[in-house]
């Protein structure tokens, strides 16, 4: 990282937010996540965690990183006349800015240290805030390689990985094009919502003239655990979510199901991962009018402990063959937990790190709320697509009566970078 001496209010090139912890900071290494978290003393005026997550490493942070509390996700489209040179320049500028912000620094000359007659390089709303474990993760959409007219705008169509095949249509989808797809995506996660928003806002500002936001999503309350150190959270339906999620500490599972391996496809994606996003609206009012017994039948778990029906604890093995006194399966044949389970899908697993959302109410006064689903995987064709085909349609997952998929995205997230490099450099050599 360069340019620290331009940070407003810095002492000897050290940012204000990082300076707070120099006297007693301790390094905590998350080897499985490929990132280092440096613990800093939280500023009295700040909010959220004072940890910073290393930006540089073999894998991008924000994938196996223990899931933070808040999300700002944005998909971008390049302007139609954008050139390959403009795209690579944007990626280089974004990489530098993201590295600075995740370290708790300001972008460029900062919010107050540049020329007073020019717009500041940094928008300034995170000046007094802690680093809050901010991670910024980038992905490349299918349309970056070949646009809707089949044009290879940037000379990279031949480098498109086979794993980045367009997702098929699924029964019951009600996808809105305006909140689906995108040439590029940015996932900013943090323990402070303002820090996450600050990251996307500044990257969007840097992109002005080259790319613009196609759609974005704010999220709160992680809906899965990506580390054994985290408890299982609850989603907007009140149930524990992501009990069987892959954990970052399970290196074998990460290699088998999350990280792209040598020989999987083009070399530029080795060490990366593929991200599927789905904006899933929950039909809150019908769900809230449903009996507890029916809710538990639909999910296949108890609402209080998260235990599989017929068992007593959340992590008890699921017995799909168990029958009740009436001879019927204890876990319904259409229960979500049965149809989503790896044993029902050829062993397919995902690293989920989605978030809840509430975007006000619609024109009928119904809560516009649900799950912004995000899942990382080694190959969507044999993972997400297989699982979603099991779930989709009114005659499959019982949960489909209460949810609707309205947005979708598929992105190739390249491996991490080292100092002096930039996102996607391997794609453009």
Summarize the structure.
By secondary structure, the chain is α+β, with helices and mostly antiparallel strands. 18% of the residues lie in helices and 21% in strands.
List the helices and strands and how they pair.
Layout: H1 16-19, E1 26-30, E2 35-39, E3 52-53, E4 70-78, H2 84-102, E5 135-141, H3 142-145, E6 184-190, H4 193-207, E7 211-222, H5 251-257, E8 273-282, H6 284-288, H7 292-299, H8 336-340, E9 351-352, E10 355-361, E11 367-377, H9 384-391, E12 403-413, H10 425-428
Antiparallel strand pairs: 1-2, 2-3, 4-6, 4-7, 5-6, 5-12, 7-10, 8-11, 8-12, 9-11, 10-11
Question: Cα distance, first to last residue?
Answer: 22 Å
Q: Strand order, main sheet: write it out.
A: 4-6-5-12-8-11-10-7
Order of helices and strands: HEEEEHEHEHEHEHHHEEEHEH
User: Could you say which overall geometry the principal axes of the C-alpha atoms support?
Assistant: globular
Low-confidence stretches: 1-48
Structural class computed from helices and strand pairing = alpha+beta
Q: Would you report the number of β strands?
A: 12
Report what the structure shows.
The protein is an alpha+beta fold and 429 residues long. It is built from 10 helices and 12 strands. The protein has helices at residues 16-19, 84-102, 142-145, 193-207, 251-257, 284-288, 292-299, 336-340, 384-391, 425-428, and strands at residues 26-30, 35-39, 52-53, 70-78, 135-141, 184-190, 211-222, 273-282, 351-352, 355-361, 367-377, 403-413. The strands form 2 sheets. Strands 4-6-5-12-8-11-10-7 form an 8-stranded antiparallel β-barrel. Strand 10 (355-361) and strand 11 (367-377) form a beta hairpin. The radius of gyration is 22 Å and the shape is globular. The model is unreliable at 1-48 (pLDDT under 50).
